[in-house]
Design goal:
mainly alpha; 3 helices; elongated; about 110 residues
Length: about 110
């Protein structure tokens, strides 16, 4: 059926656009997580801040039903986002350590 195919293709195109936007938003979220990692490194704060994560999860789960999403899905989504953010922060913190050690090594060589 031509009408069916056109309608489905139109909706799939919209999903493709939304997926692209979603990836852009996630990328921006990780950029901000890296900045937070840098600030944590400067202030000698550990990556994992359990209270913040618990608060984030609670507020996002509270929004789930109003957004017609299951709490299970939202929990998995934010668990995955949180794990990715931790990896980004860990990278920044280790990179900052590497840069510091490199500068210290270069200073000793002078």
């Amino acid at each position: 059926n031509l009408y069916f195919n056109e309608q489905v293709e139109k909706l799939r195109k919209k999903i493709d656009e939304l997926d692209s936007e979603l990836l852009g938003i996630v990328s921006e979220r990780m950029r901000i997580a890296r900045l937070i990692g840098y600030i944590k490194k400067q202030n000698q704060v550990t990556i994992l801040q359990s209270n913040r994560y618990d608060e984030l999860l609670t507020t996002r789960l509270a929004s789930a039903l109003a957004l017609e999403l299951t709490p299970e899905f939202v929990k998995r989504l934010f668990e995955n986002l949180h794990q990715e953010a931790i990896q980004h922060q860990d990278f920044v913190m280790n990179l900052a350590e590497f840069v510091f050690l490199r500068e210290e090594f270069l200073e000793q060589g002078k």
